[in-house]
Specification:
about 180 residues, mainly alpha, 2 domains, 3-stranded mixed sheet, 3 strands, about 10% strand, globular
Length: about 180
């Protein structure tokens, strides 16, 4: 990671990034993107990561949003692929339609979050507010989900709530929706 971005992070996050980059034999390149400025569940910004076999790009907003917990979250995605070797659920390029490919990528990301968000929260408990807000937004959108995707969406979100955010007030909202 470029030194000017690494310097903005705490020592433990810096060490984690250096460890992952070393084991992956790739540097993480931070790329600024103004399109991320108003993202995230609270509208303060959002990070995103693009991971390929030979390149890792961490996209960050131009508004300065670059918190330790969000950075660790994205680097945990990198660790999954390049260090732990956990494959991604994906279709071959050109296989079937783009819509199905996108749904499969979303499913992979949702399942992955059940594993990496608890690690993120272990090191950055303040990020629970982020995930609570995100789940509130997600549950508010469930009534508008396509009927064919609704049961899978409810199953994934229920699993996330019960295993990642136990005791969340969103659990009661999810129960009421499922009933």
């Amino acid at each position: 990671m470029q030194p000017e971005y690494l310097a903005r992070l705490s020592g433990p996050v810096q060490e984690f990034i250096c460890e992952v980059e070393g084991k992956a034999h790739l540097d993480i390149e931070v790329v600024l993107a103004s399109t991320l400025n108003n993202g995230g569940p609270m509208g303060r910004g959002n990070l995103a990561v693009d991971i390929t076999a030979r390149r890792i790009q961490l996209f960050a907003p131009t508004n300065g949003y670059f918190p330790d917990g969000a950075v660790r979250h994205e680097v945990l995605h990198v660790q999954r692929f390049h260090v732990d070797g956990v494959p991604k659920l994906a279709l071959a390029d050109g296989a079937w339609d783009k819509g199905f490919r996108d749904v499969l990528a979303g499913l992979d990301n949702a399942v992955e979050h059940i594993v990496i968000v608890p690690v993120e929260l272990q090191f950055h408990p303040e990020r629970r507010t982020h995930w609570e807000a995100l789940m509130s937004n997600v549950l508010a959108e469930l009534p508008f989900a396509p009927e064919g995707e609704l049961r899978l969406a409810v199953c994934l979100h229920w699993t996330f709530l019960r295993h990642v955010l136990p005791g969340s007030p969103q659990i009661e909202i999810a129960i009421n929706f499922m009933n």
